[in-house]
Amino acid sequence: MEKRINSVGKVKATSVEFKDELLLECGQVLKNIKLVYETYGELNEDCSNAILVCHALSGNHHSAGYYEDEDERLGWWNALIGPGKAIDTNKYFVVSPNNLGGCHGSTGPSSINSETGEVYGPDFPVITVSDWVNCQVLLADYLNIATWHSVIGGSLGGMQALKWSLAYPDRIKKAGVIAAAPKLSAQNIAFNEVARQAIITDPDFQEGHYQKYNKLPKRGLRLARMVGHITYLSDEAMKEKFGRELKEGKLNFGYGVEFEVESYLRYQGDIFAESFDANTYLLMTKLLDYFDPADKFNGDLVKAFESIKAQVLVVSFTSDWRFSPARSKEISDALLQAGKDVSYLEIDSSHGHDSFLFAEDRYVRSIKAFLGSDS
Amino acid sequence: MEKRINSVGKVKATSVEFKDELLLECGQVLKNIKLVYETYGELNEDCSNAILVCHALSGNHHSAGYYEDEDERLGWWNALIGPGKAIDTNKYFVVSPNNLGGCHGSTGPSSINSETGEVYGPDFPVITVSDWVNCQVLLADYLNIATWHSVIGGSLGGMQALKWSLAYPDRIKKAGVIAAAPKLSAQNIAFNEVARQAIITDPDFQEGHYQKYNKLPKRGLRLARMVGHITYLSDEAMKEKFGRELKEGKLNFGYGVEFEVESYLRYQGDIFAESFDANTYLLMTKLLDYFDPADKFNGDLVKAFESIKAQVLVVSFTSDWRFSPARSKEISDALLQAGKDVSYLEIDSSHGHDSFLFAEDRYVRSIKAFLGSDS
């Protein structure tokens, strides 16, 4: 309850359905797109204080505050969004959508395709970060936001902020690119592929038509999440959190839970498998794999960044091995070489990739200063 | 074919069935244990030149040479074992068993339990590195080897070498502990747990009784191997090997193979799932998780090492993130503090954990010198 005191308070999700079609990068067109989103704070008169918060792989629109008095769920970035916090809702109007393809109310694989009257399922097109940004443009237009004060996010969220600054240089003033990478490494793709194969080879996946057959590929989704969780935490964080502690204090010479870390992973996998859509998870991993802004510039990131006008803050965390500081430096180095306005910050943290979710003091102060500075 | 020229040539596996019972660490007793093994080189008159080669997680007794003229399979450590090689078969008599619990001929979960007349399956006891070493003692006795010139192995193989030096200080002169760790970290256990859960939750696993039902949990075994492979290779090695190369040169916006690394992982998973036993794989991961020689000494590795008399060579590889150089240093530091005869070697290599399989020049020369030195 204590955490609520400093939060934006009770929030409510809202939604919008766009009349415009969206031409996707794959060539397909999506119609009647619905986006669910939350907002915190007030939009000022000249609409110049709007901040777009972008979620990562399994995130959603609920990034701050809480829903019901009885419902303990605080938003995923509640530590950073709120009155007086890093993203100060006394000053800014925060917009937090569930992205296209999501499974928390926005149009996605589990939605009804209005053209067929059936659930999209596996026929939902494979979308890209570019498509997400284009879809967020529709939301910005709808909310009368010509230019974002800032676009900010961690991990895949940071990639969206970067893409905004590339694709719509005149509609974004500041980009917060946190715990991200300019593109995935082969190892990153490999972990995603294991997650995908876990889902796809689950007999209940039914080639993606599980809803139609009233099944859920929970086994696969559970494994996918377990693998994911290992990459979100650092070896160090796991050591601090679990060490080699035995759940029952002794070895059992069996395959039940023995070490605390096993119990943690199974639990995380179980709750995720109950609440997330498998086709959406597949999509999200593809969004990550495909992200490569330098691809159309023969791999030249400096050239790719030429169009950027926004002021950029790049943040990395020492214990993050999913997207290590070296990967963030690739972004900031290329921005520097392209003559852009960039600051780079490496935060000491033991939480691994998940560090971006925690309100570490230097991290909070830097984001606050970055957002508050004149650009 | 070129690799054959320098090999030990055509080899044949042999086997022995022990009359002695084996009391396991879990308290159970195993009878009529059969071990399959290969030998290379000649045992000298005073039986003082025998080297025990210990395999890792998914290894077996076939560590050098080849079987048939038409069969291309070279032993897994063929790069290091052979005439004039690091483990010189002109000088040494190399003994290479398939460990207890294995699935390549030695008594294991897929063997018939002589007491019930049925396949052990999931009822095969959970064994430990200690049990492996005790079983190898039976083999040493059978082969008339009172003292090993050396016991050597990589990864889980290195843990066996270490355990030999601890448990039978008078029966081992040199221990080669390569790419190992004094115990698994929480992250190591976590990866093993994902592999286990992939197997156990495969509907074809049938609670381990898949043989009885004529099924094979291939999906699970495939996923387990895919996860494993990511941890065997370094990010760097994956980058060199695959980068972000697209199999068909372009994105397909689908879930077939797109990136080369996906193709590699699926292939590795497929062949493993065809050839390895799931219950054995579960066992092997438990052997790793349980290994902790300091456990009975309140975590004090220096105290644990007091009994050691062997000369020890500890080798690590710079790009190994499964068992990093820091983990090997824990072993060598504790040996030094315990006043033991230890050399530590860190090899520059980009192959990740798999580096111990490659004949890197400095690595080969060091092992050769270590084995050849007077102790």
Keywords:
homodimer; alpha/beta; Rossmann fold; 2 domains; eight-stranded mixed β-sheet; two-stranded antiparallel ribbon; 11 helices
Strand and helix map with partners:
The structure is a homodimer of 375-residue chains.
Chain A: H1 2-5, E1 14-17, E2 22-23, E3 29-30, E4 34-40, E5 50-54, E6 81-82, E7 87-88, E8 93-97, E9 112-113, E10 118-119, H2 129-142, E11 148-154, H3 156-167, E12 172-178, H4 186-200, H5 218-232, H6 235-241, H7 260-275, H8 278-290, H9 301-304, E13 311-317, H10 325-337, E14 342-347, H11 361-372
Parallel strand pairs in A: 5-8, 5-11, 6-7, 11-12, 12-13, 13-14
Antiparallel strand pairs in A: 1-4, 2-3, 4-8, 9-10
Q: Describe it for me?
A:
The structure is a homodimer of 375-residue chains. By secondary structure, chain A is α/β, with parallel strands linked by helices. Chain A folds into 2 domains: 262 residues, Rossmann fold; 99 residues, Rna Polymerase Sigma Factor, Chain: A, CATH 1.10.1740. Helices cover 33% and strands 16% of the residues of chain A. In chain A, strands 1-4-8-5-11-12-13-14 form an 8-stranded mixed sheet, sandwiched between helices. The first copy, chain A, has a two-stranded antiparallel ribbon with strand order 2-3. In chain A, strands 6-7 form a two-stranded parallel sheet. In chain A, helix 4 runs antiparallel to helix 5, helix 4 packs antiparallel against helix 8 and helix 5 packs across helix 7. The longest helix of chain A is centred in the last third of the chain and has 16 residues. Chain A is globular, with a radius of gyration of 20 Å. The model of chain A has no long low-confidence stretch (mean pLDDT 95). The interface between A and B is large, with 53 and 53 residues.
